[in-house]
Amino acid sequence: MYNSKIIGLGYYVPDNVVTNDDLSKVMDTNDAWIQERTGIKERRHVVKGDGDTTTTMGVKAAKIAIERAGIDKDDIDFIVFATLSPDYYFPGPGVLVQRDLGIKTVGALDVRNQCSGFVYGISVADQYIKTGMYKNVLVIGSELHSHGLDMTTRGRGVSVIFGDGAGAAVLSREEDTTKGILSTHLHSEGQHAEELSLIAPGMGKRWVNDIIADNDPNDESYFPYMNGQFVFKNAVVRFSEVIMEGLEANKLAPTAIDMLVPHQANLRISQFIQKKFQLSDDQVFNNIMNYGNTTAASIPIALTEAWEQGKIKKGDLVVLAAFGSGFTWGSAIIRW
Ligand code: UT7
């Protein structure tokens, strides 16, 4: 058995900065409300016609990660792509990355675990590498939310939160099993599936043919729905549980954490976790202020920035944790 380690990281966000004041011009919201409730100051939105899609942003992030990994694209043995905003309903973006990067015909897997997508993705990659089946696995989290949001006052509870962007990691074989990804921990609770969801177009409650036939401008099932307070309450509990589960599995105490990179759901959630585990500002990385919540992309973007800023060093204990739609949640305990 091997371990896997992250040998390359990259991220890409569109240039277009959308401030809270910009949003207040198109809906009834304001900078004070958004900052107070979420910590978000601005986010990035793809500009129509610029050519950015979930896949192209993922490819841009992946190219940086592959270059930093010091490997050739043809050394990639497998692709894992996590998103809730795929370019197409099907096929998923994994194969589009294989095409756009010009990689040989390796397997490409799409992960549908929303905010937990990147943690689920690296968990999958880790298992393949552990068993020796693959040596280098590319894991991407990418989202283009902006053009699927209800940018009117009706949608303000959701649309002010989410932003666009992508992050990627190359995971590679590590012979020393005290290094790299020590463990991953995944959970789901489908009982609350609809509390944070986008129902249409699906083949469940809102069939595509019905949506077309109804042609109803008041149909909200096209837009993401979130029961914000309910999600918040579950998030703080599950984040705490799954971080503790990961630490205990490795016989570690919270004091052992050098850097916690939580999914950037809401700055208030990160601050709650920080307080609960008595971590200093240097032990938790947040960038939601600048990018909003980029769901599957948020951890790889944050991890890349933390690494670029020298906040993650060799030997550090790095903890990733996520919670989101599904509900799904997970953690990864990494010895850098
Ligand atoms: O990433 C996946 C996981 N996601 C999360 O973990 C998100 C968890 N939830 C949250 O972060 C918070 O619940 C939100 C930030 C989404 C909302 O904050 P909240 O403190 O729970 O606000 P609320 O939804 O209870 O709304 C409070 C008030 C309402 O007005 P009334 O009914 O009190 O008059 C809303 O209509 O704020 C109003 N409101 C807004 N006002 C200005 C809702 N959205 C906005 C807005 N601007 N954008």
UniProtKB/TrEMBL annotation:
EC number(s) on file: 2.3.1.180
Sequence ranges assigned to domain Beta-ketoacyl-[acyl-carrier-protein] synthase III N-terminal in this UniProt record: 109-190
Enzyme class: transferase
Active-site residues from the entry: C115, H263, N293
Superkingdom of the organism of origin: Bacteria
InterPro entries in the cross-refs: ACP_syn_III_C (IPR013747), ACP_syn_III_N (IPR013751), FabH (IPR004655), Thiolase-like (IPR016039)
Protein name: Beta-ketoacyl-[acyl-carrier-protein] synthase III
Organism name: Cellulophaga tyrosinoxydans
Chain's gene name: fabH
